[in-house]
Specification:
The chain is α/β, with parallel strands linked by helices and 312 residues long. The chain contains ten helices and 14 strands. The chain has a six-stranded mixed sheet with strand order 6-7-8-3-9-10, sandwiched between helices. Strands 2-1-4-5 form a four-stranded antiparallel sheet. The protein has a four-stranded antiparallel sheet with strand order 12-13-11-14, with no helix packed on it. Helix 3 (96-106) packs parallel to helix 5. It is elongated. It comes from Sphingomonas rhizophila. Pfam families: ABC_tran. InterPro entries: AAA+_ATPase, ABC_transporter-like_ATP-bd, ABC_transporter-like_CS, ABC_transporter_ATP-binding, P-loop_NTPase. This is ABC transporter ATP-binding protein.
Length: 312
């Protein structure tokens, strides 16, 4: 098994105000994966990224990038990392070409026009290479920020809320772009509070809440381990209320009384479905369809953020 490209151990951060932004975070990111760090605003996502990128100093713990400690071997570690921040900060009067080329030079990389051209073409920016930053749309500026971050050929790219404030079409373009980056061998870590972003793109998902990593795993495994299932029973006739004979299962009515919904744990020894259906038959409740639905990442995220951790 390959070594992690990023290894975070016992990372803590306490700001001067006394705010504890990170509380002993442990996280390994493997080469070539797309990892999504989910969490509400203020959960610690940006603080974590800022420490890895050397912008903020940790209070405790270690960060290692491809074997380089980012404190004792800062330059070697930082050169391997690219960062696309939330804020679009560029010189309005510079051209796209100059902006990206200058960023490469900042990392001590020799001039390489072919490399810059490759990056601009990959991000559909080649036709805009002579345009001034002030002439670009918000979506194009976002692409330039990614080009800047890629200019020194990092092995690990951080995208901090990459699609915040962009329209749905551009968001899908961004997703496609991230997949291409991974195909080119770049490891991608993105922070987001858009559930569909993680569900669409990530191989693994971590959920951070109040500075703690409260869940971590393969996306499908996380959904299976922490998600409940819902049995939906489509009734022939609508019910005004749930019959008291069904109280022990606690089902709820939806669709104006036409659907009876029962939540269950698919990993439990007994799901209770058999008993519920037998009781429904004895009550002569007619139904025309049965279906089960897996909890989405959204449901899991909401329960985790509110602290209702699944015991599984």
């Amino acid at each position: 098994m390959s070594e992690p490209i990023l290894s975070i151990k016992g990372l803590t951060k306490v700001y001067g105000s006394g705010q504890e932004a990170l509380k002993g975070v442990d996280l390994d990111i493997m080469p070539g994966e797309i990892f999504a760090l989910l969490g509400p605003n203020g959960a610690g996502k940006t603080t974590l990224i800022s420490i890895v990128c050397g912008i903020v100093t940790a209070s405790g713990g270690t960060v290692t990038v491809a074997g380089h400690d980012n404190r004792t071997h800062f330059r070697a570690a930082r050169t391997l990392v690219g960062l696309v921040p939330q804020e679009l900060t560029t010189d309005a009067f510079e051209t796209v070409w100059a902006t990206v080329s200058f960023s490469r030079g900042l990392f001590g990389k020799p001039r390489d026009d072919k490399k810059i051209e490759d990056i601009l073409r990959r991000l559909s920016l080649w036709d805009k290479r002579k345009a001034k930053m002030m002439e670009l749309s918000g979506g194009m500026k976002r692409r330039v920020m990614i080009a800047k971050a890629l200019s020194h050929e990092p092995a690990l790219l951080f995208l901090d809320e990459p699609t915040a404030g962009v329209d749905v079409e551009l968001r899908r373009d961004m997703w496609e772009m991230v997949r291409k980056l991974r195909a080119d061998g770049t490891t991608v870590v993105l922070t987001t509070h858009y559930i569909e972003e993680a569900e669409e793109m990530a191989d693994r998902v971590g959920v951070i809440r109040q500075g703690e990593l409260v869940a971590l795993g393969d996306k499908a495994e996380l959904m299976q381990r922490m998600g409940k299932k819902t049995l939906k029973i489509a009734l022939d006739e609508p019910l005004a209320t749930v019959p008291p004979e069904l109280d022990e299962w606690g089902p709820v009515l939806e669709d104006d009384g036409y659907t009876l919904c029962y939540r269950f744990d698919s990993h439990a020894e007994t799901t209770g479905i058999g008993g519920l259906m037998r009781r429904i038959d004895t009550l002569n409740l007619g139904y025309k369809d049965l279906s089960t639905q897996q909890s989405s990442l959204e449901d899991i995220f909401v329960s985790l953020v509110h602290g209702e951790r699944d015991a599984a």
